[in-house]
Amino acid sequence: MYTNYSFYKNYFITLPNDLKELTKLVNDNYIHRVVLLKSYRKNSALCKEYPWYRYRCDDDVLLTVPAIMGELFRLDARGLTHFRQTKDKIVITCRYASVLFASILKAKGYSVRVRSGFAPYINEERYPDHWICEVWSVQEKRWVLVDTDEIEIEGCSNVDVDRKKFYFAANAWLDVRRGKIDVNKFLHGSHIHGLSMLARTLFFDFHSLMLDEISYLFFPTYIDTEEESFNLSIEELKQLDDLAVLLLDVDTHFDELRYLFENDKKFRCINTPLTSDKDHLELEI
Description:
The chain is α/β, with parallel strands linked by helices. It has helices spanning about 10-15, 20-25, 35-40, 45-50, 65-75, 95-105, 170-175, 195-210, 235-245, 255-265, 265-270, and strands at about 30, 90, 110-120, 125-135, 140-145, 165-170, 185, 220, 270. Strand 3 (about 110-120) and strand 4 (about 125-135) form a beta hairpin.
């Protein structure tokens, strides 16, 4: 649903094939919500060019690629362009930029998947949550990590990120559970942390790999809780440990992951702003 290019397929095919050029094009059409927020705090030029009445995070309303593209064309009939004015850009985060980038490549025939984890190369003090893409290289026969945010990364390109520099959700979960790293080293947004946050990130990555790139506000009912009340049973924690182990090597364990996604109600059924625990009662999760 989220990366479905729909009737934009023919348009996407006309866009650049070069990954570096394509990440540049995507970046020229949006403003990251954190960048805009910092601009308002500093009263810099960016916020003065952006309409005050449109200050919001479009993540809340542009959940799918057709929605993102529809808004971009509404604001500027040229669609994705290097010359979009600041006032006509959308405000989104890395998840949405990655979903758009993946959709474009899928329309072109690439094998690509969106991944959720953490990026120490953005902040070494506390690793922020981050979404990137894996693009299959037919020539090299490997998954290439692409940071759609076009971030400068020491020692590598944003279109071929060193896998050691990105902390995948499964690695983060297992390292914390095994006592290798402090859970507070990982951060979601500006203040959300703890084991419940890592569990959510684990499910973001799992669902993304199943082509269900859910929003930040979507997660399984049984982990829909604040950190102070996050109290899973030993069995439930073990189930998440087992899921994380499978996610360490997605290609090897893809069939097992797909089976869980298609059969485990606990892992599949999610809460959203309008769907809560009580709506899932009849499913006997």
